[in-house]
């Protein structure tokens, strides 16, 4: 099944690596380099899942999450967080406050990222 | 009792009277009458003598009593006693009584003297104790660290002015001296009371956050020591009770806490900066290993990314090491007379790609004169790069960064001016502190908070120059560096 994936990271090499892997698996991928740009792309067309970094210029990952959860149409958008931030962020807190499905720490495995995306979205498809 | 003269007179009177009255011869009545008359005269003389002596003695007693009555009970001494009670001869009728009284008074005199000596000694001791108390109070008052002591009933014994200010009470005027009433911090109360009620007199300390009367809180390391003569059996029980309780000394550890937080932020920042290139390397290695790159061009592209990410990681590690080495003083400094403009132009060349990526205009306004500077080329280049790349990082896309150089009195000066986000007064003051990053600009660009401290170290500590910043929030900043000149070369 083909999913629409939105990747958001200000580190271009990382963005390209993830995009390459996911696209190659047959999914549709769009990329944004900060939170504002991601928000624009989401408003334009709703993705099936958002994968976002935390530390970014203009609007950071947490700011984007807050904005997403404040709006009805994006409140339930599945989100994975991909970050190099260490002890300041806890997966449990992110899950509770922003309904982040998983916190993936950098350095990361593109293979694992793809597996997680398909696991999450396949699971949702089964549920519905 | 009777003197010899009185006795003779009385005897004469008796004999004369007896002769006049008892001789049975009527014919000689004039002689008899004369004898009786002589007897009566002698009797009168004896009585007069007795009365005079009685008066004399009564007068002496009254005088003595007057002297005793006028004696000052606080000053009478041995001489006074001896004058009031002269030593009487053994045959004197008052000899025994007077001498007994005299002996008693002399003993009293001795006791009084002993009492005076004891009183004088006590006064000296009192003065010494008062002076010692005043000295201890002055020392406690001079201490910047708050000091607080409580007794075994958990009531306030003393508090120096710093402690009074910290907890917002006046020790002389408080209604209740109960610790729980004066101090609102539960952790502190617990530390003091548990120390007080422990069997052993071991100091205990803890880091405690205390809310000041103004509403802001501060961190203190509180060391509580049990008072009292532990194991000193020689001291009386009363003294032991008076000295028991706890004394607490508060050391302000706000700076330590700030340093701890900044260090944690630094470690977090460094780990983030290291993880980002590592993430690139790991991701592309995995793509290559999984055979995702099907053509040579893609494989070359992936390898190029890995290479550039490895370079980035290396630069970061070198920056960290450079700062550590420079601070430890192990870097070899090679100072020579050099043209400042050459170093500045080289620095501009290094940062130009970063400026172009953000469409920032990088302008050079360098002095046409030769500006000689006695400097280590690599270090000065590093400082200039740090200042320029900092300006580019915090200038929004499409902005402007200008590098100027000119000659000033006794040296040379270069400035990096940007049209960036600018700094608040506090940020401008702290921007050269190691690990300090302007909070609201933190997410604007990656950084370790080491670039400006490193530049400051190179300019001021290595080259004896000075670095400063002038900034206006929202309008941009100008970093100015002044270095001692190395003279003009033709």
Structure explained in plain terms:
- The complex is a heterodimer of chains A (128) and B (490).
- Chain A has 128 residues and is of the alpha/beta class.
- Chain A has a single domain, classed as Response regulator (Rossmann fold, 3-Layer(aba) Sandwich).
- Chain A has helices spanning 12-24, 35-44, 61-70, 91-98, 110-127; strands spanning 4-8, 28-32, 49-52, 79-83, 100-105.
- In chain A, strands 2-1-3-4-5 form a five-stranded parallel β-sheet, with helices on both faces.
- Chain A is globular, with a radius of gyration of 13 Å.
- Chain A starts with a strand and ends with a helix.
- Chain B is of the alpha+beta class.
- Chain B has four domains: 4-70; 143-230 and 238-252, Beta-Lactamase; 260-328, Signal transduction histidine kinase, dimerisation/phosphotransfer (DHp) domain (Helix Hairpins, Orthogonal Bundle); 335-484, Histidine kinase-like ATPase, C-terminal domain (Heat Shock Protein 90).
- In chain B, strand 11 and strand 12 form a beta hairpin.
- In chain B, helix 9 (254-289) packs antiparallel against helix 10, helix 11 packs parallel to helix 12 and helix 12 (377-393) runs antiparallel to helix 14 (451-462).
- The model of chain B is unreliable at 231-237 (pLDDT under 50).
- The A-B interface holds A 11, 13-14, 16-18, 20-21, 24, 55-57, 60, 84-88, 105-111 and B 264, 268, 271-272, 275-276, 278-284, 286-287, 290, 292, 305, 308-309, 443-446.
């Amino acid at each position: 099944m083909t999913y629409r994936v939105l990747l958001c990271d200000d580190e271009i090499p990382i963005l390209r690596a993830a995009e390459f892997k996911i696209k190659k698996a047959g999914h549709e991928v769009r990329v944004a380099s900060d939170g504002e740009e991601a928000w624009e792309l989401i408003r334009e067309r709703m993705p099936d899942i958002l994968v976002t970094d935390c530390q970014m210029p203009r609007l950071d990952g947490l700011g984007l999450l807050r904005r997403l959860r404040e709006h009805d149409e994006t409140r339930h958008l599945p989100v994975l967080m991909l970050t190099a931030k260490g002890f300041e962020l806890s997966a449990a807190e992110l899950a509770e406050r922003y309904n982040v499905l998983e916190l993936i720490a950098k350095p990361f495995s593109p293979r694992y990222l793809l597996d997680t995306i398909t696991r999450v979205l396949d699971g949702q498809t089964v549920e519905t | 009792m009777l003197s010899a003269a009185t006795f003779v007179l009385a005897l004469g009177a008796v004999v004369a009277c007896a002769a006049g009255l008892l001789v049975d011869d009527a014919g000689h009545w004039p002689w008899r009458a004369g004898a009786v008359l002589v007897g009566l005269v002698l009797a009168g003389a004896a009585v007069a003598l007795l009365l005079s002596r009685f008066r004399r003695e009564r007068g002496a007693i009254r005088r003595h009593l007057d002297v005793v009555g006028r004696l000052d009970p606080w000053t009478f001494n041995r001489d006074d006693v001896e004058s009031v009670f002269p030593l009487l001869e053994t045959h004197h009728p008052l000899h025994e009584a007077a001498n007994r009284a005299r002996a008693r008074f002399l003993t009293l005199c001795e006791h009084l003297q002993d009492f005076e000596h004891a009183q004088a000694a006590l006064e000296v001791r009192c003065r010494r104790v008062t002076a010692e108390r005043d000295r201890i109070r002055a020392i406690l008052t001079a201490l910047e660290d708050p000091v607080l002591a409580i007794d075994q009933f958990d009531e306030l014994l003393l508090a120096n002015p710093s402690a009074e200010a910290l907890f917002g009470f006046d020790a002389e005027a408080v209604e209740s001296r109960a610790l729980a009433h004066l101090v609102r911090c539960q952790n502190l109360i617990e530390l003091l009371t548990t120390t007080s009620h422990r069997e052993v007199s071991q100091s205990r300390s803890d880091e405690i956050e205390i809310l000041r009367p103004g509403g802001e809180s501060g961190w203190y390391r509180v060391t509580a020591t049990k008072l009292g003569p532990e194991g000193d059996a020689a001291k009386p029980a009363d003294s032991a009770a008076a000295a028991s309780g706890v004394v607490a000394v508060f050391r302000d550890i706000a700076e330590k806490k700030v340093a701890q937080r900044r260090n944690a932020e630094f470690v977090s920042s460094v780990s983030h900066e290291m993880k980002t290139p590592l993430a690139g390397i790991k991701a592309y290695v995995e793509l290559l290993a999984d055979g995702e790159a099907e053509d040579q061009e893609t494989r070359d592209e992936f390898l190029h990314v890995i290479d550039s990410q490895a370079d980035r990681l290396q630069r970061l590690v070198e920056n960290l090491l450079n700062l550590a080495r420079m601070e430890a003083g192990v870097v070899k400094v090679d100072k020579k007379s050099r043209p400042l403009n050459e170093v500045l132009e080289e620095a501009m060349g290094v940062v130009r790609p970063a400026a172009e990526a953000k469409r920032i205009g990088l302008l050079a306004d360098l002095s046409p004169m030769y500006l000689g500077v006695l400097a280590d080329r690599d270090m000065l280049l590093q400082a200039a790069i740090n200042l320029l790349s900092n300006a580019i990082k915090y200038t929004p896309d499409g902005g402007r960064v200008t590098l100027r150089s000119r000659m000033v009195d006794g040296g040379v000066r270069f400035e990096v001016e940007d049209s960036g986000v600018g700094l608040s007064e506090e940020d401008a003051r702290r921007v050269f502190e190691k690990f300090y990053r302007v909070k609201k600009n933190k997410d604007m660009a990656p950084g370790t908070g080491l670039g400006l401290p490193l530049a400051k170290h190179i300019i001021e500590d290595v080259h004896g120059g000075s670095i400063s910043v002038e900034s206006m929030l929202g309008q941009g900043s100008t970093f100015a560096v002044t270095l001692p000149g190395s003279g003009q070369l033709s």
